[in-house]
């Protein structure tokens, strides 16, 4: 039924997007605004005891102010650049990260990095290696890319502190146990 779905109306009370989404993020106040939406996807897997475990996960996409699909709801996650909806860090169904624009053009190919953070001030953290920070014996390396996908700080650091949405002018980077501050203006 559509009673558990979300749609949108315009100022005149006309339905412009039929109820079809399970979650939405954002508001439309102008023609340049976008809304992140999701539709739940069901999936299942066979457990060791032979039973089937069924789950639901949200799959994300983007619509514009008219309710038109900009990006299909096919991504595990979508993170828009701070102040710039045209640069999006996304994760596909294979759990690979990539960077695309609103037209779906690839800026950073899926799987090039094991993790890509959202962009802030034109930069994003990237990680090579699947282990998490602080894990003993971790062989992960961190770097920073710009909005063109170019490494401006090579992926050879043991840790780079998160700066997405933090309004920092500089960030802490660690390599070989040595702490260093890097200013964004120097990248």
Provide a concise account of the structure shown.
By secondary structure, this protein is an all-beta fold. It has strands spanning 6-9, 15-21, 23-25, 34-46, 52-64, 69-75, 77-81, 84-91, 97-100, 106-108, 115-116, 123-128, 141-146, 151-157, 159-160, 170-175, 178-183. Strands 3-4-5-6 form a 4-stranded antiparallel sheet, with no helix packed on it.
Structural notes for this entry:
The protein is mostly beta strands. It contains no helices and 17 strands. It is flat and about 60 Å long. The protein has a four-stranded antiparallel β-sheet with strand order 3-4-5-6, with no helix packed on it. The protein has strands spanning about 5-10, 15-20, 25, 35-45, 50-65, 70-75, 75-80, 85-90, 95-100, 105-110, 115, 125-130, 140-145, 150-155, 160, 170-175, 180-185. It is about 0% helix and about 55% strand.
As residue ranges, the low-confidence spans are none
Number of strands: 17
Binned strand content: over 45%
**Biggest β-sheet: count, sense, barrel?**
4 strands, antiparallel
Sum up the overall morphology in one term.
flat
Helix/strand class: mainly beta
The helix/strand series, from N terminus to C terminus, equals EEEEEEEEEEEEEEEEE
Cα-atom Rg, whole angstroms? Answer: 19 Å
Instruction: Work out the helicity level.
Output: under 10%
Query: Largest sheet, order of strands side by side?
Result: 3-4-5-6
**C-alpha termini separation:** 51 Å
Count of helical stretches: 0
Mean pLDDT: 90
């Amino acid at each position: 039924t559509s009673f558990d779905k979300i749609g949108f109306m315009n100022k005149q009370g006309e339905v412009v997007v039929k109820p079809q989404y399970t979650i939405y993020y954002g508001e439309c106040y102008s023609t340049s605004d976008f809304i992140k939406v999701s539709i739940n996807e069901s999936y299942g897997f066979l457990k060791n005891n032979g039973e089937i475990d069924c789950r639901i996960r949200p799959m994300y996409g983007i619509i514009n102010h008219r309710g038109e699909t900009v990006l299909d709801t096919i991504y595990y996650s979508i993170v828009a650049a701070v102040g710039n909806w045209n640069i999006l860090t996304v994760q596909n169904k294979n759990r690979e990260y990539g960077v695309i624009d609103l037209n779906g053009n690839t800026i950073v190919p899926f799987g090039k990095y094991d993790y890509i953070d959202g962009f802030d001030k034109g930069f994003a953290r990237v990680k090579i290696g699947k282990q998490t920070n602080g894990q003993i014996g971790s062989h992960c390396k961190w770097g920073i890319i710009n909005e063109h996908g170019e490494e401006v700080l090579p992926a050879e650091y043991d840790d780079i502190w998160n700066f997405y949405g933090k309004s920092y002018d500089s960030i802490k980077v660690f390599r070989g146990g040595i702490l260093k501050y890097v200013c964004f203006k120097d990248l």
